Amino acid sequence: MKKFFWMVVFSLLAGSLTAKPKYAVALFHYNFQYVAGDYRIEARIVRESLWPALQFFEKHPRYRVDLEFQGYAIETMAREYPEVLKLLKKLVRRGQIELVIAHYSDQFFIAYPAIDLRRSITMSDSILHLYGLQRSRVFFGQEIQYSPGLATALKGLYDVVVTSSDPYSWYRGSIPPLVRVVYGHDEILGWMGGGEKKLKNLEWTWSFLDDGEVFNTLDYKSDFYRVPEQEKKNIGRFRELEREGYRFVTISELVKILKDDPDYTIPVAGFIPEGTWNMSVCGPFMWMGRQRSGVETDGLTRALSYRLRGEVLAAEKMVEHVKDRVDRSLLEKVLAWLREAWKHLFLSEVSDSSGWTPWPVEVQYTANEVAQARMYLQRIYEALQELLPEAPRRWRVDTRSGSVTTLQHPAVAPSFSEDYLPLPLYVRAAAYHTVVKKVGEHLWQLDISCIRPADGAVEIAFPTSGEGLYYSAGCGEEIMVEVPVDLKRDPALALSNGFLYLGNGYTLIKDCSVEHLAVTWKRKERRAVFREELNENNPGMKMRFYIYKGDKAEGHRLANRLNTWPVIEMWVEEGRVRTEKVFPLPEDMTNK
């Protein structure tokens, strides 16, 4: 009997010595713009969800977690809920909560160039500095947006990007938890939420990965009021993992553990396009073409912000042009107004104004924020008018180089002659009308207007080759990469700079400021398809494309000059400054 007892003891001891360590991580995504524009819901999220969650973690210091907010949320807490921010700061400072802060607003950032995201991060960082908080170098985006372009966009700002099981499982299948994401010459670590859990030297799992609101509410189902049964279930998950021997760590800590693991080699992840969580509902297309609520205007909504970003960039360059002639007090006002314009631009880019099923207040939210930004821009122009040359008071601003040119007369538009389109066009609509003009020797402009069919789905498609397509990933517009042909499913691309080399000698450039839609490469059909599922209140769509025949690098450069860094013409009319994006002239094209 004694012999059996000691055999059991030695067996248990041996097992405890050889058992692999187990780690649990959590990421709570709090979205104060959950119902963008509904500030009752924003208040309820703080009082019913965030506040009790923070109190729970204060009482259980062994539970370490990552909490993610917009910079806007920190700003709102400081202004309206100081006691909540005070507790958050306490938990961050004692190392229990790892603070994950990315964009200022919960933007659909993969639809826009990298400068928008980087400026948004800079704004969030300034808010954190103001309130004595320090963020981690972990990046997590609204809708769990992912793009290989983040390797470039986040360079020097973050060390690791967190995403879910999508979009890698959608495009490629299983993947290890920690990988290297490569884009051009840049690289960043990627933490794959659906990655393999049982590794050679350790096991890991999620104690929580979801909207922070559903830790203790049922979001819409409970109107964001606290639900004890929901809270009990999620608290039970932490306690169960604790009983099973899991150690609670932050994402940064677990990344370091794996980096230091001699038996774990961090592989380069196979290239995939940009994506979101739940790719089965079309990824970027959900926010850039799919309209489900009956009030959405995806292409127009996203284009409205895109036009505004050009105007804000132009105003910034104009301020730089005259700042040496502005007295200090006025310059401080102008810079403050410019900051507000950027802030409202970021708010206008919020994801929920064009998906999943936005309320009318959310669709209107983008238009309202664009109007607010333009009010600040007008203040800037009014303050600077006296410092600018007299009549005819017309200028051209190159947002890339920063040059401001005084025009004696309105710029002469390039001579466009009507022509045939140099490649086939496929359209699905009740009716459509095209105007094709030849811009240059190898460049055509296509304007197309489509009338909504009975089922609402308009499609505009162009022929592609079977391989050799190139594009710029979301937030990675300065680099062009080949679209993989070995993906499990047809890729949906945001085209944040409008550039798509069709692989057949032609570059297609979407004018993102007209209608900004995603494209899907239908590989078997060899077509690049722009689809918008128009609701009944949206009777048609209008898009503008440019088709360039020649070197894809030249097409890529033209796309960035048209969309990413537009040329803006300004003039004074009835005492107000007006702006218009103009087609880049040959001299503009020399600015790389």
What's the quick description here?
The protein has 592 residues and is an alpha+beta fold.
Question: Would you mind describing this structure in some detail?
Answer:
This protein is α+β, with helices and mostly antiparallel strands and 592 residues long. Among the domains are: 262 residues, 7-stranded beta/alpha barrel, CATH 3.20.110.20; 151 residues, no CATH class. It is built from 13 helices and 26 strands. The strands form 5 sheets. Strands 12-14-15-24-21-20-17-18 form an 8-stranded antiparallel sheet, covered by helices on one side. Strands 1, 2, 3, 8 and 9 form a 5-stranded parallel sheet that branches. A hairpin with a 2-residue loop joins strand 6 and strand 7. Helix 10 runs parallel beside helix 12. The longest helix is centred in the middle third of the chain and has 25 residues. The termini are far apart.
Annotation keywords:
592 residues; alpha+beta; 7-stranded beta/alpha barrel; eight-stranded antiparallel sheet; 13 helices
